[in-house]
Amino acid sequence: MQTASDRHEYPAHWEADVVLRDGGTARIRPITVDDAERLVSFYEQVSDESKYYRFFAPYPRLSAKDVHRFTHHDFVDRVGLAATVGGEFIATVRYDRIGTDGLPATAPADEAEVAFLVQDAHQGRGVASALLEHIAAVARERGIRRFAAEVLPANTRMIKVFTDAGYQQKRSFEDGVVRLEFDLEPTDRSLAVQQAREQRAEARSVQRLLAPGAVAVIGAGRTPGGVGRSVLDHLRDGGYTGRLYAVNRAFPVDQKELDGIPAHRCVRDITDPVDLAVVAVPAEHVPEVVTECGEHGVQGLVVVSAGYAESGPEGRERQRELVRQARSYGMRIIGPNAFGIINTSPQVRLNASLAPEMPRPGRIGLFAQSGAIGIALLSRLHRRGGGVTGVTGVSTFVSSGNRADVSGNDVLQYWYDDPDTDVALMYLETIGNPRKFNRLARRTAASKPLVVVQGARHGGAPQGHAVRATRLPHATVSALLRQAGVIRVDTITELVDAGLLLARQPLPAGPRVAILGNSESLGLLTYDACLTEGLRPSPPLDLTTEASAEDFHRALVAALADDSCDAVVVTAIPAVGETSPGDAELAEALRSAAAAAPAKPVLVVHVELGGLAEALSAAASTGPQAGTAERLQNEVADALRPTATEAPPGSRLIPAYPAAERAVRALAEAVKYAQWRREAAEPGKVPEFADIDEKGAAELIDHLLTRGQGLTLGTEETCDLLARYGIHVRRALPAPGPETALEAARAIGYPVALKATAPHLRHRADLGGVRLDLADEEQLLRAYAELTSLFGKPGELRPVVQGMAPRGVDTFVRTVIDPAAGAVLSFGLAGAASQLLGDMAHRLIPVTDRDAASLVRSIRTAPLLFGWRGSDPVDTAALEELLLRVSRLVDDHPEVVAVTLEPVVVAPRGLSVLGATVRLAPPPTRDDLGPRRLPVY
């Protein structure tokens, strides 16, 4: 326990699990008086050289005084943190607050000395870098703004920890010691360094799971059947290249093998290292298994056992304890209740899943939170005829089950720089950390397509998933994902359709589509589908039902050579007659023509041409080759593929679709994604405005918040705050009676508007609560009498008088800070367009100039702003500037948790903000700016 002199309780919120550079995990927590024995044991395992670097002199052991000093902290001026694995220290860091004279001090002194010690066996794992991030966050919380560290010149590793962190620093050399001083305020560089380290560490942690050198299946039964035995058989039958072990306590003592696989009663009995354990035992026995794995040095677990959060509150607590236990040993978990993982790389061939067959190797990465959907994804990519035909195989597959630890974010980190994955397909039922997912998705989408379908869109999260609630509707979340470059689709079928196109066809340069084929009707259906999806199709070219393979070849070559064409859709139906091409012949004709123009995508829409679909996809199907499929493979092997497994990267494997709508929808998604890629290559800027008074706004906000933790500002306060960011609200004066209305009109000047501001009438011109263009006192008094006679007494109506704004288009601008997604800026046309039809556009804050321009143009009713049907175009430049100013206000001051500007009347020249509300509150805690830490669900 802490002594009476300690001034703060144990800060449990400083505890965190982190992923280290090699993919293992460690727990960071404050050091307390109860850690004396751990500290001594830790110090005894540190080399003499490391001790010398820490204390600048030989220091073989810690004295009792040292142990007391290093374990007794007040968690304000003296703080120590430890990184632990298996409950034992592997590294420590501490700071001591000092004054300008370098002696111990208390607040308001804002400088501290910091020192590290890392056990030699764990040096090089990035432990010190992780500890620096966390001790810096702790120091900032306690009012410390600067660290100082003294390091011996020979201690190059520790000097590198400080210099690589990305903070602004000063360096000096005196008396044989390097002195480093650096500010703790995060910088763009320090955040970039932190995120780069996070990516490497999390990618490595997933890589360790997907490419283990040895796998133990714990719970493998002696007889065929059962989950554990099935996974063991799948690993063996899939050709796993590493060492494989069967583990079951029920094995007889003298049993050494199970169907040729080494068998053991316990993981501890395995003499060689084990990298991955597949756990398939009842939930009540899992803790014992995890302990055995941790003590044996297993690096990761795939827990297929059920009985966790999906079973209720008791199971949820069991799941949390499972994660805590595994992480304490440095292990990561896929699951529990997981379907498993697959890696088709020839160097690994890992099928640690319930899928009975190994998919063909390919370029598509699959992630599914649901085992059932994972099965559906794999089976659709296996399929060779009837529906969409696969044109490529699978690189890796992860089904995360309850997603208690490893999540889609971790797998995205791995796929980002995985050379074997060209396209990522994800089925998500929940997004545990939307801010991080958005950031990772944007980075990934800049280099490879990311296609996502969301389940549970209109209901709660699956029982096994614990996630932070979001107040944003699904449509808003989808819009934000699209802003990040995510290809959002609605069904598993669309997910596979888009993935197969993107896996082997180039991105289209634009929306212009050529259509050709041997069916006029199918061509017209394709033409209509293109128009529906916003593409620009040329009139279909009908080759007639008598078209030969050569006719298709010539037509496709001509279409691809046409500069007015960005993509080609080929339609094909069964044909009869002597000149009718065979399936393999037609496939070769299309393949060879497409190969001549590698920069343009080609798709095929086929009707009842199972043979053509198979011929087009045989080169890279994910399914096993057998029976008819095997005979077809032999028939077309020379024409379509160089090998019997997978076509090499860059080869033109043409996707075939059984319906025009499906092909065109996939093409439309590719067109939109390609456009996003081009725009992302030249990102916009957050402009500076010379008239913004950021400091004055901050002082005003601080003053206003002294009145309460959450408050909606009054009219004058709202106008004052907005004016400091160059946002001017048109003056409105209260009119509690006819005489005060006349006085207000005289002060403002005619013509004026009379408006009821009661909540049920606000912004409801359709109810008659607004009177416009009142030119004189007589009209104003008449309007006042009408309002009070229709809707009640002035006290109920809350009428105001406001000067008339120039005519224009009524719009609104809103911001909200969502606890899960962050700050969101929304825009739309005021009235029925947004309220009834939901026609709104959204962007994450901060908004760039490009974001603002696209936001204005993203709503379906945008033509009303640009001169629809001969009307005057409005001043969209002024509107975009307003959006940027509102974004700056919310980004600069997170205490501004909500802003509504409505209506904003955009005229041909300029705009007028006629109504505004602002809400202030302490901002939600942001976990994306703090030190790296694994989430706790």
Rg estimate, integer Å: 33 Å
Q: Let me know the average pLDDT.
A: 88
Helix percentage: 25-40%
Main β sheet profile: 8 strands, mixed
Derived from helix and strand composition plus strand pairing, the structural class reads alpha/beta
Q: Count every beta strand, where a strand is a DSSP E run of 2 or more residues.
A: 39
What keywords describe this structure?
single chain; 937 residues; alpha/beta; eight-stranded mixed β-sheet; 28 helices; flat
Description:
The protein has 937 residues and is α/β, with parallel strands linked by helices. Helix content is 35%, strand content 22%. The chain has 28 helices and 39 strands. The strands form 6 sheets. An 8-stranded mixed β-sheet has the order 1-2-3-4-5-6-8-7, sandwiched between helices. A 7-stranded mixed β-sheet has the order 11-12-10-9-13-14-15, sandwiched between helices. Strands 17-16-19-18-20-21-22 form a 7-stranded mixed β-sheet, with helices on both faces. The chain starts with 15 loop residues before the first strand and ends in a 17-residue tail after the last strand.
